[in-house]
């Protein structure tokens, strides 16, 4: 046991009280500062999440900073300073006194923080369990003696708890759990980057700009937060996978737009590949004439397929068949069909 243990435990209990049961962007982050201030009596503090699309930080909560300072902390200049100091290569928070450069030679300190009356500062890297760069927490004090080394170590101990609270994957993992039979999954960022979903394998169909990802994103409109459809399994023409796409919550700090999961197809109710093709066109609002032209078959053949489809879905009408198939994720997007132009 070290002398820091009681302080660390007390602070951990308070941080857990603030963040427990919330997760993601719903955490009341402003409440974090009061217990932290007991350990580090700061004059100003800031917590920002890293925006991978803009390559800079976005403010989640701040105290003691005016709009000008907050704008700087969200700038590319601040991100460059974080990288120059190697903050994310360290295993513990970084104080000003740890930097092998005098404050007068650090532009932000010489021009901004020192004139403002700050004499020491601490930068805390916030990293997910799987190593993802989540954000940074900074605190500035008016005394070179604060924070002490012991206080710095305490902040390092509770940093993973704060990381978990701001990690958008916390909420996304909860969404993924709703699809109980999912076997693989990925998350798509605002810039189209496909990221691994922690704790779940990556599927070869879920790559950046793949047809699966592009089709899923196209179907997640502003009025649709969930979609599911069938996709041919690369192992064989008549084998399918079920693709489920869920729109991610838009609130900060979520820089992800969609969760895409791969599952077994479930019960296809005996529908053949051709019947699934026809059904996909019906769901998309195509007429029998249009379907016949697209599939190079006659309208009479389309009508026969529809009779079989309605029987297998126990649907009295074409519309009911379409609705039931969507509910059962028996939708094969027509983009997968070799259609006539």
TrEMBL record:
Which intervals hold domain HTH luxR-type? 264-329
Which InterPro entries does the record cross-reference, listed alphabetically?
GAF, GAF-like_dom_sf, Sig_transdc_resp-reg_C-effctor, Tscrpt_reg_LuxR_C, WH-like_DNA-bd_sf
Q: Which GO terms describe its molecular function?
A: DNA binding
Give UniProt keywords alphabetically.
Answer: DNA-binding, Transcription, Transcription regulation
* Alphabetized Gene3D superfamilies for the sequence: 3.30.450.40, Winged helix-like DNA-binding domain superfamily/Winged helix DNA-binding domain
Q: What is any one GO biological process for this UniProt entry?
A: regulation of DNA-templated transcription
Query: What SUPFAM superfamilies does the record point to?
Result: C-terminal effector domain of the bipartite response regulators, GAF domain-like
PROSITE patterns in the record:
HTH_LUXR_1, HTH_LUXR_2
Please give the superkingdom of this protein's source. Bacteria
- Name listed for the protein in its UniProt record: DNA-binding CsgD family transcriptional regulator
Report the source organism. Answer: Actinoplanes digitatis
Traced from the root, the source organism's taxonomic lineage reads:
Bacteria, Bacillati, Actinomycetota, Actinomycetes, Micromonosporales
């Amino acid at each position: 046991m070290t002398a820091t243990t009681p302080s660390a435990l007390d602070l951990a209990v308070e941080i857990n009280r603030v963040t427990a049961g919330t997760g993601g962007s719903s955490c009341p982050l402003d409440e974090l500062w009061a217990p932290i201030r007991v350990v580090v009596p700061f004059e100003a503090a800031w917590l920002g999440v890293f925006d991978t699309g803009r390559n800079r930080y976005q403010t989640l909560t701040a105290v003691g900073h005016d709009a000008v300072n907050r704008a700087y902390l969200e700038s590319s200049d601040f991100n460059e300073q974080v990288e120059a100091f190697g903050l994310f290569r360290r295993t513990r928070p970084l104080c000003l006194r740890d930097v092998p450069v005098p404050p007068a030679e650090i532009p932000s300190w010489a021009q901004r923080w020192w004139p403002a009356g700050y004499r020491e500062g601490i930068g805390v890297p916030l990293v997910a369990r799987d190593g993802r760069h989540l954000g940074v927490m900074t605190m500035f004090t008016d005394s070179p003696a604060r924070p002490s080394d012991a206080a710095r170590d305490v902040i390092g101990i509770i940093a993973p708890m704060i990381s978990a609270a701001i990690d958008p994957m916390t909420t996304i993992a909860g969404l993924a759990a709703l699809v109980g039979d999912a076997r693989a999954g990925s998350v798509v960022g605002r810039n189209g980057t496909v990221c691994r979903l922690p704790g779940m394998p990556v599927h070869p169909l879920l790559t950046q700009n793949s047809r699966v990802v592009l089709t899923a994103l196209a179907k997640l409109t502003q009025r649709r937060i969930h979609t599911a459809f069938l996709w041919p399994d690369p192992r064989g023409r008549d084998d399918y996978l079920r693709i489920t796409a869920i729109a991610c919550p838009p609130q900060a700090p979520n820089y992800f737009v969609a969760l895409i999961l791969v599952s077994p197809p479930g019960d296809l109710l005996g529908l053949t590949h051709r019947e699934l093709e026809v059904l996909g066109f019906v769901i998309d609002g195509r007429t029998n004439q249009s379907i016949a032209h697209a599939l190079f078959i006659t309208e009479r053949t389309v009508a026969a397929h529809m009779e079989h489809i309605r029987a297998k879905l126990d649907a009295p009408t074409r519309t009911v068949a379409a609705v039931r198939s969507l509910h059962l994720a028996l939708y094969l997007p027509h983009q997968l069909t070799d259609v006539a132009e």
